[in-house]
Amino acid sequence: xxxxxxxxxxxxxxxxxxxxxLVYSHYEYRHIKIRTIEIQSKDIPEEFNGKRILFxxxxxxxxxxxxxxxxxxKAIELINAQKKxxxxxxxxxxxxxxxxxxxxxxxxDIKIPELGVYAIYGNHEYPGEEETAENMKKLxxxxxxxxxxxxxxxxESIYIAGVTDLWHGNPDAEKALEGIEKEDFVLFLTHxxxxxxxxxxxxxxxxxxxxxxxxxxxQITFFGKIIVSAVKNKEKYGYGMKNYGxxxxxxxxxxxxxxxxxxxxxxxxxxxxxxxxxRI
Length: 280
Description:
- The protein is of the alpha/beta class and 280 residues long.
- The chain has a single domain, classed as Purple Acid Phosphatase, chain A, domain 2 (4-Layer Sandwich).
- It contains seven helices and twelve strands.
- A six-stranded mixed beta sheet has the order 1-12-2-3-4-5, with helices on one face. It has a six-stranded mixed beta sheet with strand order 6-7-8-9-11-10.
- Strand 4, helix 4 and strand 5 (142-143) form a beta-alpha-beta unit.
- The longest helix has 29 residues, at 2-30.
- The chain is globular.
């Protein structure tokens, strides 16, 4: 009897831990943090000093059988509530192709700030690139397909460059950075951070900050240590601010995603990132 009692206690403890894990994971998933990062550079023109650029990736508020419309609307409300001059979207707007229209039904509520909205493809936009391009155009968003946009205020400019997805597209940093000089201020968007490995030193030198997503910071981690991720090198390209060879790379945890058909995250909190430009 004592043996059976011990086993039952262990089962109850195990079930209790699972329950705590699920409760916390659902809680963390619903609570999006706002992270503010200052970018200091002599390349930032005076007219852009103090400008705030919002970056967000990996909406993916869907599973095979469900769509988390409530959380998606909450995320868009949070995006709209932030003080910002520009919005950058880092790809993966839905997980399943059938749900792409649902994202754009809500994305029409994203308010376009003074300096515009700029977006790239993620791996989940394939197939379906044409549908994504059409919807981005309807919304007034600038979709960057191996190209850049020059943003000008009173004859002073910065650049936003973006490439297609590493897995399913044909990313071309050389083409995306065409016409840009080393002394220009450039934010470079790539959905998959591991594209950094394919960029030449000359291409990296033209960028002031490379922005990526894709990894979800592991989605379900071992108390912050990434165990499973969509990136091969989880240590190098898992999450956060990186500096490799003097080149800055920021990998966001994204704001959505799912695991085991559940809307959960564990020590991989979703985030909206605000980059504040500071001229030095």
